[in-house]
Amino acid sequence: METQRKTYHHGSLRQALVDAALAIAKEDGVDQVTVREAGKRAGVSSGAPFRHFPTKTALMTAVAEEAMRRFRAEISVELDRTEKVDPLARFRALGIAYLRWVINNPTHFEIISMRRALDFDASETLVQLNEEIRGMMVQILEDARAAGQLRTMDMEGVPLQARALVYGLARMWIDGQFAQWGGAEKAELLMRQSLDNFLALLAK
Q: Looking at the structure, do residues 113 and 26 belong to the same domain, yes or no?
């Protein structure tokens, strides 16, 4: 019996290929993703995917763009729950959003982190959203300083230090290392405690 080939509009095929690439990465790892295999999973002819994504790098960059948009949305949701008059609480909320997003979207996190698999600097979406999130961190810290919430210290390196902390915790989650530190079921609690300890060093 002949298998009926799916048909897609221009935009929906592009999304189908992005979804297929994410599924392959989740099941078999990022190294196993190819444009041809994504097209095969989407049920289209072997040449059709290359009209959207001429290379694997282009395809993985599109997957990363979707991941970054979802991450930015997660931050917005968390910040909307947090009092605007408490900048330090908002800084914590941003860190929590990052960690929760990684727990719920480990493959997306790995793809964004694996810069060798995509062309980050050539993507206007990735650069813009990354700068937007970084700028948000800096602004919240400036607001916390203005509100008198922070110790007198050199704040220039704090955004990098905060990012290193949450990135390291996220990487530990991805690599399954929380089993050595109280169990994977306690991972989010341990992440929150680590973030709180960091913030305690900043706060007056």
A: no
Kindly report, residue by residue over 133-182, the tens digit of the pLDDT.
999 999 999 999 999 999 876 778 898 999 999 999 999 999 989 888 87
Contacts for 117 with CB less than 8 Å, ≥ 6 apart: 30, 56, 57, 60, 111
Q: How far apart are CA 196 and CA 204, in angstroms?
A: 13
Nearest residue to 111 (alpha-carbon basis) of 47, 53, 172, 33: 33
For the chain, report the end-to-end CA distance as a whole number of angstroms. Answer: 72
Please name which of 70, 71, 15 lies closest in space to residue 44, comparing C-alpha atoms: 15
pTM of the model: 0.86
The H or E element that residue 129 is part of is helix 124-146
Q: What is the CATH classification number for the domain harbouring 85?
A: 1.10.357.10
Q: Is the pLDDT of residue 93 over 90?
A: yes
Q: Under 8 Å CB-to-CB from 164, ≥6 apart: which residues? A: none
Domain that holds residue 184: 60-202
Residues 6 or more apart whose CB falls under 8 angstroms from that of 160 comprise none
Q: Residue written as tokens 């700028």?
A: 135
Q: Are 111 and 18 in contact (CB under 8 A)?
A: no
3-state class (DSSP) for residue 158: helix
